[in-house]
Amino acid sequence: MFSSVSSRSSLVFLAITLLSFLAASSAPTPLYYLYQQALQFSPATLTLIFGVYALSLLAALLTVGSLSDHLGRKPVIFAALLLEMLAMLLFVNADSVAWLIAARVLQGFATGMATSVLGAALLDTDRQQGPLVNSVAPLLGMACGALGSGVLAEYAPQPLQLAYWVLFGLFLLQALYVWRLPESVSRQPGAWASLRPTLHVPPRARRALWLALPVDVAVWAVGGFFLSLAPSLVRAATGSTSNLIGGSLVAVLTVSGALMIFSLRNRPADKALRLGASLLAIGIALILTAVHNASLPLFFFATLVAGSGFGAGFLGALRSVLPLALPHERAGLMSAFYVLSYLAFCLPSLAAGNLTRTFGLIATTDGYGAVLIVLSLGALLELMRQRPGKLCGVAGNA
Fold first, then answer.
1. pTM (two decimals)
2. Which residue in 12, 86, 87, 321 is a FRET match for 370, CA 20 to 30 A apart?
């Protein structure tokens, strides 16, 4: 068992490291327009660059997602940090679409490795606060990455390099510090066998996962759209040319989500899921209204509402399933959860990017939003049919 001081310092370090990986994942978002101008590629290519990140992340979750259950947490965290540092160097030197794709592929694999092992390590360190940190840190990370990158692109020199150098230095410090952490699991046999692509959901968690999945799919599909096409959509709908707009929208989405998670941290999972589905449907409807009225203030308000739904839905899904895993099942369950989440994160946005070629960005957004509203309302109706607290039986202990 950790001492209270050691446990607290480990929790802080793990949370900051998880936040850093997600900050790096959103750092390219405000820069996509600059990349498009410099390299002359279409919205479909943009969503491909975005999508290969998520697909590579999925490949990592399916192969190395459970590796830390066998090798220990520290060596896997260290390996993920080294890969992420290499990805940052690829971004710094990216002068073509091929370089951008290579950087995103490597970054996706590193992030997939990191999210599963850091999520499991957070649960090892503090089972009460672990699910909360697992929910909040990714959202705050995406906010910091998008907003910080946008600010540097707008006001600092080297807009396509500086953010990645800052992140490289942060990951280097974390790689040096990680060996000071106490190891939270003992080595187990079967490391090679764990690399075989598989999804492991403990039987006791399967029903809760299926009930929470529609809301989880909707919230991650919104996130994927914002991190790929939202900056282009705002430019098309309002005519704004500021590099800060795209990063600010991502920050509003994710910070409002994080605040909602914190405010609902002691509420049952089923209530969080129902609130998430409701706010998400309202927020998406407001976003569509903002697009057709070319209203930037309404766009930000709508993003605030949708972000609150994102946070509530994400927390409800996590708290429904994660407490139902035993210690040796946690990394595997985290991997399965993120596989399903990131499929929703990348596939709809890839489809949307391709549809823009035929229908244009505005019409594609209308269809995308309509599908998500229907999914959210359908999930809400199904959740309302369930008995209170039935989602995970021990919702209050999550």
1. 0.80
2. 321
